[in-house]
From TrEMBL:
Pfam family, one: Radical_SAM
Record's keyword terms, sorted: Iron, Iron-sulfur, Metal-binding, S-adenosyl-L-methionine
Cofactor needs: [4Fe-4S] cluster
Family annotation (Gene3D superfamilies): tm_1862 like domain
Domain Radical SAM core residues, every copy: 241-470
Cited InterPro entries: BchE-like, Elp3/MiaA/NifB-like_rSAM, rSAM, rSAM_horseshoe, rSAM_sf
Protein's UniProt name: Radical SAM protein
Amino acid sequence: MTASVPRPRDVLFVLPPDFSAPEAHLVFRFPPLGPAVVAASIRSLGLVGRAVDLALDLFKAPLDLEVAPLVAPTLVERHLAGEHDARIDAVMDRIFERLDEPGRGADLVAVSIDRGSQVPFVAVLTCEMKRRWGKRIIVGGVAVEHLHALLEKSGAIGADIVTKASTPAQIRRAFAALLDLPEHRRGGPLEPNTEIVELVRGGMRKAPSAADWPTPDFSIYDLDPYRRDVVGVDGAAYPAYRGELGASLVLPYFFSFECQFSCAFCQTGGTQEHKPIDLVVRELAELSERWQTRAFLFFDTQVNLLAADLSRALLAARLDLRWSDSYRVRPSEPGDLELMARAGCAGLTIGVESASARVLKAMVKGHRPEQATQMILEAHRHEIMVRVNLLSCFPGETREELAETRDWVRQNAFAIDDLAPSSFYLTADSPIGRKPERYGIRVRGPRSLEGETRFRKSPDSLMYDEMGGLTWEERAPMLEASEGMLRSAWLEGRASLDGLGGFSPSAMLGLRSHFATKAEIYAFLGRCRGGAPRLEEEARAPETSAEVLPSILRSSLPKLLAPRWADAAMARAFAAAFRAAAPSLAARLREGDTAHVVLWPDGRFLFFRGAVRRGSDDRARSFHVEEPLGAPPPEEITQGSSFEVLTFRLDPRRPRVVP
């Protein structure tokens, strides 16, 4: 007699909407990483999952009802306590028209919170789930202590377990506790003992071991709705776009845990752990092949300490991925950014925070303003799309110091593809919150968040006075205004780009999957936004595509050529040089090799390995030839004459065949 195998239990993962979120947060939404990690972690318990992304569903098919009551904590609290609001009931009826079919067939329900502003809605949602379905319900994510408090205070019956579990072992313990509860349980929220937190250095968290983290399980999603045309989703802005790029999928991924740096304002820090790099490459290869994508958005606190090893491993594996991650200005070794670019780094979010040396020192950022400038320009030169984080109104920052940052943004805006200004907010679990007197502030109490700040700031934000400086009443009006001032300076600095930019990391990845250079991206989008009929020869996107340059080469264009590179005559001149030298280049360059070509106005050209010196305006000033390549070099090389330099590399994605 054979033993029966227990039937796998079905888990419905529900991803709630955030009615405080700006539309841009949903336009480029990717399949959320948290539930995919949870699903992989609980597989050993015999649990299989399916996800319903209410946020994406309601974005694609909005409700024709007012949702404001669901983001009003006082109204929600009264509703939960028994004073039913008809407007809330009407919205929930419509939402359950979309949830009932998958929900009634599930054994367990798991709800994921990724923003504190979702708490009021999730409280109502879980209570309705319990009333309608009678299922066991678990809620995890950020700010869950606020959900626990709201349910207990109102006496409402909803989630059975509310947990801060974040590591795979903690997640399994939480789900095991849920399985131990009786079916159709009705009672207040429980929090099982899943938290095993080790502290280091001043109360900061020790990173969990990387050994237990599984490959994210994206099979819980229907991935088709997440495949987006990164230009088409903003069709109103690009009226001449004809769908040339098509839809693409970006998958999130992370391989490091916590951060060993200790910025004064941050809520992480202590130690850092990471998956073995060879395992990271294998997992990326598996995800890429299984889900047919080469674009990955990494969610590491900072990739600085691992970037070089990861890049070398990706190049050795020849995966040809495009990826983006967060990066500190320091530490970074010379050559790291060039190596990362060759390994597929298409975008970086760089924490510059301020252009004031004094403010950076107070923040414990570990870099100087000139180092931030150097890094931004270097990333720009290597075709890495740059998103800059700024933190205005740090305690003690003067108006003059904020103006320094504004001027820096305006001056370097040409190299910054997106700006993310965020005014400072204080939390008790940051270094400055743990020792406020050291940073010259006095805590006043909880801060009230309104509008979009509910989405962007922690629900645990605090008010404070600056000792010998501004009171909260004086500082508060400056917070939002400072963000607007910095963004205006960025737009002013990008006037020559006609307002193009402001790309999300997902959009950056999608664009760089189709274009080798930022110049090509801006030229193409400029044509798409013009709205004017395009000439037949302009319909190719971009002009420097494989129809113009030999397909064996992938170009990487210096920035200040961008306006002229869109000119067909300049494109044809470079293309003619490549065609003349292609046989020799194919024989003498290895896949992935980087080289340069100089083009003189009279049509002479020179291919070479070596170095190019550029001025502060990024224009080539001189070059040093270590080894001539391709066709024979000109008889005379006069560096004092006018010339243009193009940097390129042999495309590792294509066979070694000369067109």
